[in-house]
Amino acid sequence: LFLLQFRLSNQSGKPQRMNGKVHGKVYVGNAPTPVEFTSNDLHSYVVVNDGRSYVAISDIPQALGPSLQPLSALGAVIGWAFALEQPGFKNGFSIIGGEFTRQAEVTFLPGNEKLSIRQEFRGIDEHDHLVVKTSLEGRVPEVPQGSTVQIGPYSEIYQYSNNLITSSSTRDYVVSLPDGSTDTRTHQWRQTISFTSCQHDVSARDTKPTQMLSVDQVFVMYDANNELIRFAMSNKIGDVNGEPQENPCFTGRHGCDTNAVCRPGEGNQFTCQCAAGFNGEGRTCYDIDECRGDPQICGFHAICNNQPGTFRCECEDGYQFDSDGHTCIEVSRPTDACEEGTHTCDSPERAECSYTGGSSYICSCLPGFIGDGRICQDIDECQPGRCHQDAVCQNTQGSFTCQCRPGYYGDGLSCFPGKCVGVLSLSGKRSQHPTRTERRRRTKTQCENHRDGLQGVIASGPRGPRPPVGQYIPACDENGAYEPMQCHGSTGHCWCVDRNGQEISGTRSGPGSRPMCIDHSGGKPPVGPDTRPDVHPLPPGTHLLFAQSGRIEHVPLEGYDMKKDDAKAVLHLPEKVIIGVAYDCVEKMVYWTEITSPSISRANIQGGEPVAVIRSGNLDSPEGIAIDHLGRTMFWTDSVKDHIEVSSLDGSQRRVIIDSDLVNPRAIITDPPNGNLYWCDWNRDAPKIETSYMDGSNRRVLVKDDLGLPNGLTYDSQSSLLCWADAGTHKLECMHPDRRDRRKVMEGIQYPFGITSYGKNIYYTDWKRDAVVAVDRYAATESDEFQPLKRTKLYGITTAYAQCPSGIKTIMGLQQDHMFILKTFGAIKVLTLF
C-alpha cells in the first residue's frame, strides 16, 4: 500500500521532501577524540520532474564541517531514489518505495581513513514527508577551515537483485585551500541497499539487473556562520552502455511548472500536465481551492484550510476529531470557572479571569493595577511628567486624571494661561481645544520658526504676513509639524520631507504631479492616558493584516472573500505611524516598521505585548519589511539611509546587504524557497524593481521601463508570480521573474500603497479610497472592497496564513555562491534555498 501511494504521488510530478535526524561520532585527521553530535536535522527537497535534489544538515560543528564536504554521497542516495528516469529504466523509489536501509563504506586515499554511513528510510510521516535516520561513524581526512571542495560529474553502476542493491565507485574531488592552491584527493565508495520486496509487485520483476546513475552539477558548501553543510546535484538513471535520450522530459530541460509532470512524445515533443490539485496549461499551474469549491468538504464543526495541491481539515474550537480521523465531535469540558464565578481572581473592578481550557484559568490584573491576579493593588500613575507642568495629577482606581491649575485651562495634558475662550461644542459646552490665538502662545515648533522666519516681519494688515514673491514657504500642520509633502507656490514643484523638514532625495515632482509622501509626525496625540498596547488574539484561519497610522487591523478571509463584519484592530499604538507589516507563519508573529520614533517591533497575534527588536538610533526611516520564515531572518528598507539590511528575527546579527544605487527604496519581499529577494525603488528620476539573492549577491534590475511610483510588491510562491502596484501609472502588473513575461492585470487603480496576494486574489491598500481592495488576477477584475470605520491612509498589508506555505520552487542556474539553509519548525521541516 505504501509503495502504491508513493508511486501515485511520484508520478504526479509534485516536489518531494525528506526529513530526519543525523547522529555521529567522527574523528577528523589525526585528532585523538571524535566530534560527536546527536539529533541534528537533515532536510532534503527534490524536484521530481527534472531529477534535482538538495540536502542540508544543521548544527555541524566547525571542527568537523569543512571535512564533511567530500561526502556529497550522503545525499546521493536521495538523488538515486528520485533520479530522472530514462525510457525503460526506474529510479529507486519506483522500484522499492520509501522503506529501505542503505549501508555505505567510504575509504579515503592515500591515508585509508574509513567512514561508515548507515541510513534507514522509514516511509512517509503524517505530513507526507519521507523520513530518514542517518548515522556516521569513523575517521575522515582533515579539510582546513576556509577551504572549499569541488566534485565533478560522475557515474555509478547499480546492481539489482532480490532484496538487495549494490554499487561501488572511485571518485576524485578537489580541495581549494585558503591560500589559493588546490589538492586533488580520491575516495572509494561501496554501498548496499537492502529492502523487503513484494512478491506480487510486477513492476519489480521488470527492473533491469544493472542501471547507471549519472550525477552532474554537484554543489557542496559548509556555512561556518550557520554551521550548515549543503549538497545539491542533478541525477539521471539509465542504460549502462547508452547515452541519455534528448527528449526534454529525460534531460530536465522541459520548462514545465514545478507542480507538473512532463509527458514525452515523439522525438523532442513533450507535453506538460499539471499535478492533481492544480489547474493550468502545464507550464504554469495554479492551485485549486478545494475549500471554496465545496464549502462542506470537511463536514460540520470543521474548518477547511487550502494547501498547495490539497487541503487540510481542522476542528473548530471545542471540537476534536473522532476515531475515524474525519468527524469533529464536541469535547467534553469541565465547568468554566470564569463564567460560573467560582474562580479565585480579585474582583472584576481590579482583575480579569481568562478561561484557558480544561479546568484551568488565568487571573491577571487590569491595567492600572499590579499583583498576581488574585490580589491586585492600584498603581499610582502620578509620576513626574505624567501631566502638564501647570496641571495637577490625581490618582484614581486603575487610572489617573490631569486637571489644570487655577488660572490655566486645557485638558491637563496641555494647559494654557488665562481663561478659556473656545467655541461651543455640540453639547453646548465650550471646547477645551485652544483657538488660533491661543495656539500662538505656546512655544513655536521648528516648522513654525522656519516658516515665520522666511515670511519676515508680520504685516499689520488683516491678511497677516506676506512672503516674498517666488520664495518657498514651508507648510506646517495644526500641531506645528512639517506637512509630509511640501510644494513651491511659484514653480509648482512638490517633494517629500522628513520630520525635520529635510527634502527626501528622489521625491521631487514637476508641476501637476504629486509624490507619495509618508507622514512622519504620527498625527495629533491622543487626549487622556494611553491604553496598553496589547494584541487582541486572532481566531483560526487566514487573515489580512494592514497598517493604518498607529493601528494594525485584520480582516478574516473565507476562501478569498473578506469577512468585513468580523474585521477589527489587532494592535493600537497611539502617536505612531506604522508603515510596513510582515507576518512570520512559524511563530505566529506580526512584525512592523514605525517611523515616528524609528523602530522595528513584533508581537504574537495569539496575544501579548509588542517587543521592539531594533530601536531608534539605529534606524532613520524603515519602511518595507519582509520575513524569511525558513531562514528565520528579516529584511527591511530604509528610505533615508538608502540601503537594505538583514538580521535575525530578534534583531541580532544585523548587517547591510545593499547600500548603493538606491534612492527611495520602499517595498521588499522574500521568496524563501528560491532564495530570492525583491524590492522596489520609486526614485522619481529612475523608478525600478530589483532582485538579488538573500545575501545581496547577484543583484539585477527586473523592471525599469514604464514605471511611475512602484510602491507595493508581492510574490506568490505557488504561481511564481511577482506582482506590483504602481501609483504613478495606476496599474497592477505581474510577471514570472525568471521569464520576464510582464503582463498587465488591471489599470485605472487610484493610489495603491501596500499589496499582498493569496491564491488567485491580490489585495492592495489605496490612499484615495482609504480601503483594502481585492482583485481577481485570473479575471482581471476588482472583486471586493473593505473600508475601515476610521477613514485615514492605509499603509502596508500582508497575509497571515493559517499554516506556512509549503510550496518550494525550482532553482534555475545554481551557482557556487548559492546557499541553501535548513531550519526546523514545529512538526514541519523545510529546506531553505538562498
Structure description:
This protein has 9 helices and 58 strands. It has an 11-stranded mixed β-barrel with strand order 1-2-3-13-12-9-10-11-5-6-7. It is globular, with a radius of gyration of 32 Å. It starts with a helix and ends with a strand. 41% of the residues are buried. Residues 1-11, 420-440, 457-469, 523-532 and 807-834 have low confidence and may be disordered. Residues 245-286, 287-329, 334-377, 378-416 form the EGF-like domain. LDL-receptor class B repeats lie at residues 588-631, 632-674, 675-719.
Task: Give a quick rundown of the structure.
This protein is mainly β and 834 residues long. Helix content is 6%, strand content 43%. Strands 1-2-3-13-12-9-10-11-5-6-7 form an eleven-stranded mixed barrel. Strands 32, 33, 34, 35 and 56 form a five-stranded antiparallel beta sheet that branches.
Give the biggest beta sheet.
11 strands, mixed, barrel
Q: Which architecture name of the largest domain does CATH use?
A: 6 Propeller
The shape, in one word, is globular
**CATH homology group of the largest domain:** TolB, C-terminal domain
**Share of helix among residues?**
under 10%
Mean pLDDT: 80
